[in-house]
Amino acid sequence: MIFELILTSNKNRLINKKNSALVKFFHEKELSKKFNLFLKQEKIELNQNQAANFFAKKEELLFAFTHKGSPDLLIVKKHKDENLTNDLLRNTLSAIIIRLKNESIQNLEIDIPPYSDFKELFSSETNYFESALEGIYLGNYDFEIYKTEKSKKQKLNVNIMSEGKTISSDQLLNCQNKMKAVSFARDLVNEPASTLTPQELARRVKLNLKHNSLRIKILNKKELQNRKMNAILAVGAASENDPLLIELHYKPSGKLKRKIALVGKGVTYDSGGLSIKPTSSMLEMKGDMAGAAAVIGTIAAAAALKLPIEIIGVIPAVENMISGKSYKPGDIVKTASGKSIEVKDTDAEGRIILADALEYACKQKPDEIIDFATLTGACVVALGETTAAMFTKNDKLAQALEDSSKSSFERIWRMPFYSDYKEQLKSDMADISNLGTRWGGSITAAIFLEHFVDKKIPYVHLDIAGPALKHKFTSYTEKYDTGFGVRLMIDYLSNLA
To answer: Same structural domain for residues 234 and 127?
Structure first.
């Protein structure tokens, strides 16, 4: 983390202390009229050049050290109605925390606009304040454990208010618990593959997810063989690090609203196997277990928040490597379900391991199954780096997840999921092929997965190949892999609760 954060929400102003900064938001239309009045009321003095720059600069985020009085630093966000989203506070405050890394600021007071100015963009006032809190935590994230020279973690006191209105201590605690889980998910995805093997992933899950209502079970190679999980075994055969299946079972006491299975692709490194990737495509493949991280983070947050939902997490964890033991294009793999797969491309390995994982999840008899997978480059071509693809035939589930996507700003988009795409996956020698034609690759991948799901169980597949990895769309996704899916799912589960 960049700072040791101490978040509060009270009316005791931090700008009266030394080394303080004040964050203030102004609509661009109101800047000339209200800015000087604001300076006068707060008794803040700027030198003439700084004052002129506030009006002349095109930048929307402006930093200025005060000429006299407190706070020491004034930070102004200019915003306009054009293209305004509910990510305004989240993205702005994240950028401010990142920028403050190089300033000697110990106290940060944030005065956000009244909820009434933005209520059409948010599901509730709670969601409005929460977006601000999330921005602070997301911006405070870093991953420097492998650097020789680490920056010193200084304390930063942060106080948030809106025209004198404060946030409850319960809301602060709930957001802290959620964002701690998001950070853990990000740590897992950002960890190099040389360290985060399937065994290390299982170890960290057991070490970090300790809760009375949570049980963890690890199926090792021998157990996978006993259960005839040949799909997972085939993909992991070439690696010196044996494949595993990790099961997380969160079952709180009391009356439970629903039983949900979450399945996450856990390829801790993907070389492409014998269908080897070029080097440029391998650089981000430590993040090919981002689906697993989303499931782990979601269950960690659900347990901390004591959500009354039973959740079963299923994570097939493998390395897709190259050796004399590699599975090969042309192989036929018989899965735990008894259905066979013709392997046409060993770099389409995620869907193969998920075949066994989805069959395992179905046996738990959940009310619904949602899987997360960095599955296809075709999805990124279709939707870009900022949006995950959603595949489902259940309109009710789709609508609920779309609502949570809008609330959390973890974007998803519903894609075509037509059964006739299955024609592209026909095999003359097996029940199904793991690769279709060049066209509609994310759709045929989803159709492949559906083949291994009980038709009676509502099912959603989320292809998160774009937004799970770092991209320059927001300040909090630019530098590190993102932990995508955790905030989306906690919003969805909280609505069920």
So the answer is: no
According to DSSP, the residues that pair with 263 across neighbouring strands are 314, 371
CB 162 within 8 A of CB 111: yes
Q: Bridge-partner residues for 318, per DSSP?
A: 267
Q: Are residues 194 and 320 in the same domain?
A: yes
Domain shared by 217 and 155, yes or no: no
pLDDT score for 51: 74
DSSP code at position 112: P
For 269, what's the count of Cα atoms within 13 Å in the CB-facing half-sphere? 23
Pair 189, 127 in one domain = no
Domain interval for residue 119:
4-167
Domain count, the chain: 2
Q: How many CB atoms lie within 10 A of CB 114?
A: 13
Do the strands 107-111 and 310-320 form a parallel or antiparallel pair, or are they unpaired? Answer: unpaired
**How far apart (Å, rounded) are the C-alpha atoms in residues 30 and 81?**
12
Residues 232 and 118 placed together within one structural domain of the fold: no
Q: Which of 136, 167, 198 is the last residue of a domain?
A: 167
- 349 and 208: one domain? yes
* C-alpha span between 68 and 130 (Å, rounded): 33
DSSP assignment of 346-408: TT--HHHHHHHHHHHHHHT--SEEEEEE---HHHHHHH-SS-EEEEES-HHHHHHHHHHHHHH
Q: What pLDDT is recorded for position 191?
A: 98
| Residues 232, 128 share a domain | no
| DSSP label of 308 | S
Q: Distance between CA 374 and CA 291 in Å, rounded?
A: 6
The pair of three-digit structure tokens given for residue 5, joined into one six-digit string? 């954060």
Give me the residues of the chain with pLDDT under 70, please: none
Structure tokens at 481: 């892999």
CB count, 10 Å around CB of 207? 8
- Provide the β-strand partners of residue 78: 26
| Boundary of a domain, candidates 167, 190, 207 | 167
Residues assigned a catalytic role? 277, 351
Question: CA-CA distance, 331 to 72, in Å (whole number)?
Answer: 67
Closest CA to 368 of 449, 263, 278, 473: 263
Residues 470 and 390 in one domain: yes
Q: Which of 49, 45, 137 is nearest to 91 (CA)?
A: 137
Backbone angles phi, psi at 459, to 5 degrees: -135, 140
